[in-house]
Amino acid sequence: MTNQDIQNEFSEDQGQALLRFARFTIGEKLGITEKNHDQKEIIKSLENEIFNKNSGVFVTLNMDGNLRGCIGSLESRESVKQGVARNAVNAAFHDPRFPKLTKDEFARVHMEVSILSEPSPLEYTDSEELLSKLKAGIHGVIIKKGGAQATFLPQVWEQLPDKTSFMSHLCRKAGLYSEEWKKGKLKVMTYTVQYFEEGE
Hints:
There is one protein chain. This protein is of the alpha+beta class. The protein is built from 6 helices and 8 strands. It has helices at 12-30, 39-45, 80-93, 103-106, 127-133, 163-173, and strands at residues 57-63, 66-73, 109-116, 120-121, 140-145, 148-152, 187-191, 193-197. The strands form 2 sheets. It has a 4-stranded antiparallel beta sheet. Strands 4-7-5-6 form a 4-stranded antiparallel beta sheet, with helices on one face. β1 (57-63) and β2 (66-73) form a beta hairpin. α1 runs antiparallel to α2 (39-45). Residues 13-200 form the AMMECR1 domain. Pfam families: AMMECR1 (PF01871). This is AMMECR1 domain-containing protein.
C-alpha cells in the first residue's frame, strides 16, 4: 500500500460503522448500553472483509473542543476492526495524559477514527528540504531519534498549520529539543489517513 492508497478505501458508511463500534466498545466497559447501538447490528455492520485487513489505526476522543484521549498503532499488526476496539479502550482509559473517561463524560465525547497508510521514509538533506517535502494537511509525520519517537496525525495541521511550528511541537512531544529537526539527524516518515468523525 502506498501513501495515497488509503484516501478513499473505506466508504462513509463503513467509517460510521467503525465509530459506532468504538463507542459501543467504550460504553460496554463503562456499563452503558446506548439506544440504537445494538450489539448484533454493530457486529453485522462489520462483516465486510475490508474490516479484517491489517492497518494502523488511531482513535481520538475530543470533548468541548479539546483533546480528551488519543491512542493508536502506526504499524499494521492487526485488523482495522481489532485496532479500533483496542485503541478505543486505550484512548478512553489508558492515555497517560488524561484521567480515565467517566460515565458522565461518555455522552459528551466526540470520537474520530483514523485509518493509516503504511508509513514511508522521507529522505532529506537539510531542514529546508524537509519542510519543502512535507505536505501540510495531508501528511501524518513520525520522527525518531535513538529511543525517542512521536507522531502527529494529519488532523494536527489544523491546529499547527505552520510547518516550522508543527515540527517543533512534534519534537517536544518526542521529548527532544524543539529545534532538533533543524539538525538533519532525525529519521522522518510520513503517512496519510482516511478519518471519520461522529456527527454533531
